[in-house]
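Onboarding guide, step 5: your first structure request.
Type a short instruction followed by the sequence, for example:

Predict the 3D structure of this protein.
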Amino acid sequence: MRTIAFLLLLTSAIFAEETVPHLPSSARLFLRVPDGSPPIKSVRVSQGEAVPGYWEPTPEKRERLTDIRFPIHWWRWTEVSVSFIPTHTGTLELDLNGPWGEARPGVLQQQEVLWDDLTATGTTLENGGFEEHKGPQPAGWESPWRPYPDSTAWPFPGAEPFQGKHLAASWHGRPLTQSLPVKAGEPVTLHLHVRAAVPVGHVGLKPITGDTPAHATAAQLRRGVNLGNNWESPPGGWGIKYELQDLDQIAAEGFDHIRVPVAWQHRMKDGKIDPAFLAEIEPMLRHAISKHLRVILNWQHFDDLCRDPEGRRGEFLKGWTLISDHFKDWPASLSFELLNEPNSKLDGPALASVFGDAIQVIRRTNPKRTILVSPAQWATTSALDRLVLPESDRNLLVSLHCYDPFEFTHQGANWVGLTDLKGITYPGPPARPVSLPASLKESLERAAWIEAYNTSPAAENPCSAKAVERILDDAIAWSKFFGRPVHLGEFGSHHVADLESRRRYSRDVRVAAQNRNIPWTLWDWKAAFGYWNPETKQALLKYSLFGD
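The system replies with structure tokens like these:
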């Protein structure tokens, strides 16, 4: 009786649990084999990744569950295929799921994922089009954790099926499951269409049409380099120094623009821009322009704004008032970038509000200047669907960053906890397997990446051009749909990686961007990710960025 009472109490708590609707940027699909059965093998996903269930409490349970994740969008259906080879004869569980996230501690984000047109070979899938129902629930499917919603409840109103009259929905707290019969050694392939459900009240970016002034600017920003690790450091801090000769060499190498990161919160004095700082930076900017280098002047490392958007909004807007007024008479070859890598609480409506106000401030004195803006989540494509821009402003260029595969590009980087990760060559797989360092043994996600890096063939390896191409394909699809040009504002690899791998990686990113007509800006010129070796005065990545 006590067991039954406990279960009833637990069930009541689940049903009464508070959730907050949230727009997902990815979907998840689980494949789980029964207790005592060997894990499936040769898992392939057309886009995204497949990893063991690293959150499970025991190694045996982790191996039995395969967690498949792939990017999705609210403005279009995404087609995905998943293939694998069962190693047992019997059944396995197919679990249509969603990403996990918290709106705040103890309160889950309800990230609803829409599914349609599921088909399968090598197994039998019931009601993959979700046209048949048993009550509100699709026939043949189970909703084991929570009651399945009625068709009049969110997320169904306004959601158009990929085909037919019905679709299905799931989220992390209400999966849809079905048992699939499988035979050992007989390949199984699942084809499906998936989409992000739009929360009630969601305000999305509206598409615009035609060429814009921002497109014209993008066409002139073909290949650039960041003056990294200089003015984004506090005065007297860890920054390195740049000279006029650096700009001469940058122009001589063939770059056509520079990006200049500045931590403006450290460059204000007595309610205005520090005159000493202006005396230092202005000659550099003027010299760059005289060398026919276009300039992107950005605000870097304003972490307090990301942590507390409302508390720091006034300081941010005051800063851009001063910056835009000071540079209002400079040539159009100077562009502004609002903020480097928005993150943390600066997302969704908060980001739209802060950026909208900042754009208004700049437009008072610079009505025709190009402004670069970035999405949340560190300027990654996964947050593009949550970026909202003023519809009437057609001179906004969207800047994205790409450091995938992260374990390669940031190996040895202490600021992201990868000090001890070394020896990752590009592309994978390596000639000899790489071991996960002891300091990362608790990171099961890193362990799964290393396993895939060591064992996956080149065409499917997570450390390959595929990782970059998928990101840039998403960027271009978004750009074409919404009519906003995109710019790759940062990419690069840490100097701890071997130089030949860095060269191959840089070339792959450059070619991928070039083939998609995306302008790019390497991080960085002569610091930890450097193109230029200031000691030997040699270019390290010349052929990678300017070769065939």
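Each response can be followed by summary notes, for example: The CA atoms of residues 221 and 519 lie 6 Å apart.
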